[in-house]
Amino acid sequence: MSYVSPAIQEKFDTLSPELKSYILERDVTLYTMQDLINELELIVSEAEEEEG
């Protein structure tokens, strides 16, 4: 189960609904902005690998 800290919830809510859903499906724990940034970078990296 994913968790988004209240400290970054406002920033998390600025993401698109699709991206928020995708992140939450990944079973992550986001306490800080750096956690969120790291997760976004990981998603981009995975997408680039798939494109190949």
Description:
With 52 residues, the protein is mainly alpha-helical. It has one domain. The protein has 3 helices and 2 strands, in the order βααβα. It has helices at residues 6-12, 17-25, 33-51; strands at 3-4, 29-30. Strands 1-2 form a two-stranded parallel sheet.
Which helices and strands, and how do they pair?
Elements: E1 3-4, H1 6-12, H2 17-25, E2 29-30, H3 33-51
Parallel strand pairs: 1-2
| N/C terminus separation | 30 Å
**Radius of gyration from the alpha-carbon trace, in angstroms:** 11 Å
Write down the domain tally: 1
Strand-residue proportion: 5-15%
Task: State the helical fraction.
Answer: 55-70%
The overall pLDDT, averaged over residues, is 97
- The tally of strands reads 2
The SSE order reads EHHEH
Largest sheet: 2 strands, parallel
Total helix count?
3
- Order of adjacent strands in the largest pleated sheet: 1-2
Low-confidence stretches: none
Structural class: mainly alpha
Using the alpha-carbon principal axes, give the shape. Answer: elongated
